[in-house]
Amino acid sequence: MTGLFEQRVETDADIAPPKGYWTGVWRRFCKHRLAMAGLVVLLLLAFACWLGPVVIPFQFDDLDLDHTRALFSWQHPLGTDELGQDTLVRLLYAGRVSMTVGVAAATVGVLVGALVGALAGYYGRTLDGFLMRLADMMLSVPVLMLIMVLSTFLKDRAFPGGQIGIIVFILGLTGWMTVSRLVRAEFLSLREQEFIDAARACGLNDAQIILRHLIPNALAPIFVAATLGVADAIMMESALSFLGFGIQPPVPTWGNMLTNAQQYMIDTPWLAIYPGVLIFLTTVSVNYVGDGLRDALDPKLKR
Amino acid sequence: MGRYILRRVLLALPLLLGVSFILYVLMRLAPGGPEAVYGQNPHVRAEDLARIREQMGLNDPIIVAYAKWLWAFLRGNMGFSLFTGRPVVAMLGDHVPNTFLLMGASLLFSVSMGVLFGVISAVRQYSWFDYGVTTFAFFGYSMPTFWFGIVLMMVLAANDYSFALGGYHYETGHWLPAAGMFGASFDGNLIDWLRSPTWVGTCDLGAHLVMPVLVLSIVSIASWSRYARSSMLEVIRADYVRMARAKGLSEFRVIARHALRNAMIPIVTLVALALPALFAGATITEQIFAWPGVGRLFIDSLGKSDYPVVMAIMFISAILVILGNILADILYGLLDPRIRFE
Questions:
Q1: Which of A169, A200, A246, B90 is the most buried (most CB within 10 A)?
Q2: Would the pLDDT of B157 be above 50?
Q3: Taking every pair of C-alpha atoms in chain A, what is the biggest distance, in angstroms?
Q4: Is the confidence at residue B34, as pLDDT, over 80?
Q5: In Å, how far from its chain's centre is CA B53?
Q6: How far apart are CA A99 and CA A93, in angstroms?
Q7: 25-64 in B: which are within 8 Å (CB) of A?
Q8: Alpha helix (H) ranges present in B75-174?
């Protein structure tokens, strides 16, 4: 009953239901136009790379020695390379390989880094000192050289996942340090909060506290580091394959398609341009998505 | 201050020992072992290989072998290359000046251009220039250096730009040399050139330097301009800058004499952290442009299983990184008067 001077009571229908944390993150992310563009580009690329080689009638190692190094033909819209292999199929298949390696290596790195950071941040003192010293040691050695050495040692060994598994393992092994620092910092600040005391009082043991309470609250920097780690891993894998230390031909990856292109760049420059453009496009898109994610996850950012 | 330096150096020693031990164990785990290069010779029998292993001290317990290697290394004996037989120190001496020149030129170029862009970008925030620089920084950071090198080579060095105009056939192109360090104009290496520089040799060296330095700098300029921009933005908001403006100084004076110095403190420490790259930071670029530097030596030696060279390069890089960290800390303490050492 409302009169002229009485307050109008708000009913439940007037109050918008509270949105969750992740809905807010998604909405802030959508406002970031470049990040959305990057996400769309990545989805389109992934779609093309997984669907393309299925649809195109050539395999990535089908030789066509009568038509080597062609620029364009209706059969080979992006041309052929020096062995007559169709460039388009190789580019798309290489996209599969590169993106898989990128995501998998970043995942491994994030998992190892989160584990190390969690243990160091939660237990502190000697374990913390030891683990951070280990991280410092790994950071002192130049990364590219270490990866090249490890890849030479593991090259012809049988490894679960084959060549790709070896590369993912090596990249993950050398890429956990930044994530561990971030997670450790988060844990050091979260550890002192009251909900952890409450959890201990409820009788939860250490593992449960870490897994169910601390890690979910430290996810924001982990996500950003994971996304930027994917871009890093794609670049690193391309560089390694270019130098010959990564995935070997005939399995195409954007990096090793560039290795031979250097010899032929006078006559057939397009062989060198296509893979590089794709690496660049993918890396820029992932970096934009990571940037957008970082802005979306930071509630203190003034927009 | 002196005690701080001493403490940092003492703390760095176990780090160095740990790194060297890890590297040594890594090299010992090489498939085929450090004597693998002898195994490539078909005339070497199995018992000869076993004897070589014994002579190399590879049958000692690993701690003993590690201690012997470390002691020799610290006295300057980095071993002998398994492939050429020359002392590793001599091989490094051949290649280090070349990498030093390349990385030094690139560092100089990228820091100066990056800081310039970053400072102007910060002073004119939200302008078109700022927007352009931040976008360029973003793209430069995502650019695969090896691809950019190949594209540059294609455009500037490996191309025949020939065309016909008005009945005449013009040919141009090959504006820059594609590979190597000196080409045919100078017979010798960098040290010879330093001792007796010739005009033709110097021009040739410069022409050979342009593309690798550009390639290396593109990514660096991106990150330096980002650091310089954020550092400058922090400084410009400070009270003493407002005071300088209130005193009536021209904007240029305010920026150049008051704001810039304080904004450069983190940049200087970052330069100290970037110094270790002067030794072995250009592996990919050296491979593309066939520059005879330490990075190429590393790749070649790794391909030939020449482990003493590989180990020496990695260990020296690690030492330089750790020293660079200490130097950065010291510089930060020296330059920023707000920092006190306990």
A1: A246
A2: yes
A3: 91
A4: no
A5: 35
A6: 10
A7: 26, 29-31
A8: 88-123, 128-142, 145-152
**In A, which residues are within 8 Å of B321 by CB distance?**
139-142
Q: Which residues of chain A have pLDDT under 50?
A: 302-303
B237 Cβ contact partners less than 8 Å away, ≥ 6 residues apart: none
**Residue B168 forms beta bridges with which residues?**
B165
The phi and psi torsions of B160 (rounded to 5 degrees) equal -105, 105
Evaluate whether A98 touches A252 at the Cβ level (below 8 Å): no
Q: How confident is the model at residue B259 (pLDDT cuts 50, 70, 90)?
A: confident
How does the average pLDDT of chain B come out, rounded? 84
Q: Which residues of A touch B24 (CB under 8 A)?
A: none
Q: Report CB contact under 8 Å: A265, B150.
A: yes
Residue B55, Cα to own-chain centre: how many angstroms? 36
Helix A219-243 and helix A143-154: axis angle, to 10°?
60
**Domains of chain B by start residue, with CATH:** 2-74 (no CATH), 88-335 (1.10.3720.10)
- For residues A293 and A113, what is the distance between their CA atoms, to the nearest angstrom? 20
Residues in chain B with CB shorter than 8 Å from the CB of A153 are: 26, 29-31
Task: Give the minimum alpha-carbon distance from B131 to chain A in angstroms, rounded to a whole number.
Answer: 14
**Do B105 and B212 meet the contact criterion of CB atoms below 8 Å apart?**
no
Instruction: Evaluate whether A231 touches A102 at the Cβ level (below 8 Å).
Output: yes
The Cα–Cα gap between B10 and B6 comes to 6
Residues 6+ positions from A98 with CB-CB distance below 8 Å: A234, A237, A238, A253, A254, A255, A279, A282
pLDDT band at B188 (very low <50, low <70, confident <90, very high): low
Pull the structure tokens for residue A83: 């062995």
Q: What is the pLDDT of residue B342?
A: 47
Question: Rounded distance, CA B126 to CA A178, Å?
Answer: 31
Region B77-102: what's the mean pLDDT? 87
Q: What is the mean pLDDT of residues B25-50?
A: 78
User: What ipTM did this prediction achieve?
Assistant: 0.85
Is residue B178's pLDDT more than 80? no
Question: CB–CB of B208/B181 below 8 Å?
Answer: yes
User: Which residues of A have a CB under 8 Å from any CB of B?
Assistant: 133, 136-137, 139-142, 144-146, 148-150, 152-153, 156, 231, 235, 238-239, 242-243, 255, 258, 261-262, 265-266, 269, 272-273, 275-276, 279-280, 283-284, 287-288, 291
Q: Are A274 and A91 in contact (CB under 8 A)?
A: yes
Evaluated on CA atoms B273, B275, B278, B280, the torsion sign reads: negative
Eight-state DSSP code of residue A19 = P
pLDDT at B75 over 50: yes
Q: Quick check: A242 and B146 CB within 8 A?
A: yes
Exposed / middle / buried, residue A173 (Cβ in 10 Å: 0-12, 13-18, 19+):
middle
Q: Token pair of B155, please?
A: 């455009």
The residue written with tokens 């580019």 in the block is A91
Note the pTM of the prediction, 2 decimals: 0.85
Residue B274 has pLDDT above 60, yes or no: yes
Nearest to A279 among B139, B144, B310 (CB): B144
